[in-house]
Amino acid sequence: MKLVASEDYQISPEDVLEIDVFQEPDLKSILRVSNDGTIIFPLIGTIKVGGTTPQEAAQTIRERLAHGYLLDPQVSVIVQEFSKRSFTVLGEVQKPGSYDMPDQQDMTLLQAIGVAGGYTRIANPARVILMRMVDGKQTTVELNAKRMANGHTESVIKVLPGDVITVSESLF
After folding, report:
1. What residues form DSSP beta bridges with 118?
2. In degrees, to the nearest 5, what angle opens at C-alpha 33 toward C-alphas 80 and 107?
3. Which of these, 140, 145, 138, lies nearest to 130 by C-alpha position?
4. Model pTM?
5. Quick check: 72 and 122 in contact, CB under 8 A?
6. 3-8, Cβ contacts within 8 angstroms, sequence gap of 24 or more
7. Closest CA to 99 of 170, 90, 91, 17
8. Residues ≥6 apart with Cβ < 8 Å to 157
9. What is the tally of helices (H) and strands (E) in the chain?
10. Residue 33, φ and ψ in degrees, nearest 5
11. pLDDT tens column, 61-78
C-alpha cells in the first residue's frame, strides 16, 4: 500500500522523494532529504525542499531546470517514504515511552496520552507538562488535560514531532 501525501504535507528531513521529469528518464531520481532539508538533483545541484509541499518542490525544480537546461520541463515530486516522526510520553501513564506518529495524521495531546495507555491511578490530569523546541529553544507549557477532556478549553493542542509530554503525579 502506497501512502499519498496530502496537498498541504510539508517535506521533512529523512523523507524519500521520487522525482520524475517527463520524457527525461536520465533525470528520474529517488532521493532522501538531508537533515538540513536539502536534496542534490542532477544538473541543478542542491535544492532546499524541507518545509515545502511536494507541489512547491516540483515547481522549484521545474524553474531551475527551465533556466538553461530544458525547455518547459514537467516535474513531479512524490513522497515515497515518510520520515519517522516521534513523541515521548512520560510520568503517570500506563506505558511511558517514545511513540511514532501516524503518517499524514495530526495527533492531539489527549490522543498521545491514550497511545501511552492512559493515566495511572495516581496521575494528575490537571497538570500535564508539554516540552517543545520552538526556534531552537526549549519551551515548557503546563496544561490541564482534565479540562481538555471535558471540553472546557477552546484550543486543541496538537502534538508535534519531538514533543515530550509528562503527566504529573497527584498529591493526595
Report:
1. none
2. 65
3. 140
4. 0.61
5. no
6. 3/79, 3/82, 3/103, 3/104, 5/53, 5/54, 5/78, 5/79, 5/82, 5/104, 6/104, 7/53, 7/55, 8/53
7. 90
8. 108, 109, 130, 143, 148
9. 3, 12
10. -70, 130
11. 999 999 989 999 999 999
Q: Residue 156 — very low, low, confident or very high, per pLDDT cuts 50/70/90?
A: confident
Q: Are 120 and 93 in contact (CB under 8 A)?
A: yes
Report which residue type is found at 121. Answer: R
Residues in the chain: 172
Distance CA 31, CA 33 (A): 6
Residues 9-47 have pLDDT tens digits of 889 888 999 999 999 999 999 999 998 999 999 999 999
Q: Locate 47 and state its grid cell.
A: 535544492
Q: Which three cell numbers stand for residue 163?
A: 514533543
